[in-house]
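Reopening: structure tokens for the 6-O-phosphono-beta-D-glucopyranose complex, inputs below.
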Amino acid sequence: MIGLPEDISACLFDLDGVLTGTAALHREAWKQTFDEFLRERDGADFRPFTDQDYARYVDGRPRADGVRQFLSSRGITLPEGDSTDPVDKATVNGVGNRKNELVLRIIADRGVSPYPGSVRFLEAAEEAGLAIAVVTSSANGATVLEAAHLNHFVRARIDGIVIKKDNLRGKPAPDSFLAGAKALGVSPANAAVFEDALAGVAAGKAGGFGYVVGVNRANQATELRANGADVVVDDLAELLEERR
Ligand SMILES: O=P(O)(O)OC[C@H]1O[C@@H](O)[C@H](O)[C@@H](O)[C@@H]1O
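Re-run output (same inputs, fresh job):
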């Protein structure tokens, strides 16, 4: 009764941009980080980081992958460094640490709100007896889930910390979603993936999941379909309305 195929028994939700409005906060922190980096490197007439750069190279991917992918699109390669690098060090980790410092500050200042339509959908999924996992590339997944008061819906969480610890390939590879399905004890064919990022719907498609729901938060319905979404909605509550 919740707008999913009959044989779906589990839901794997991305977090930022699917359940909570935090994708825009990540994008803002990334823009400030990369623009500062490029200004420092190229001077005042640097080419700024755009929304399209975010969608193509950064959105949905683990932090370090986002740094590498975007910089490589500008012909820049940095040494990896390590997780203790200061925020002004020109390494993949240094740039990532700067972004994390900014995003945590933005989250603390503005707070985290869940999308009301997503909360309604979570309630309906729970009531329908579906198993629920959150699969996010963010190492801040636990903090965001808790701040949004959504923890009680979630039976399993695969986040950026688990991805690193278990050496999983980041989205668009399917590994994190496959780990989510495994944690819930369901096969991919019986699980639905919910994603707002192009790399995320691509991961759902690559993993052979039963249904991939693209959540269109950034005016990219066509791209979500092209990258693997079976259906695209602007808000998860639309799925509930379809079946009324
Ligand atoms: O830097 P974090 O919090 O570990 O997050 C990694 C990525 O997590 C994803 O959920 C976001 O879509 C990306 O914007 C973000 O870069």
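The radius of gyration is 18 Å. The chain has a mean pLDDT of 97. Marking as resolved unless the reporter disagrees.
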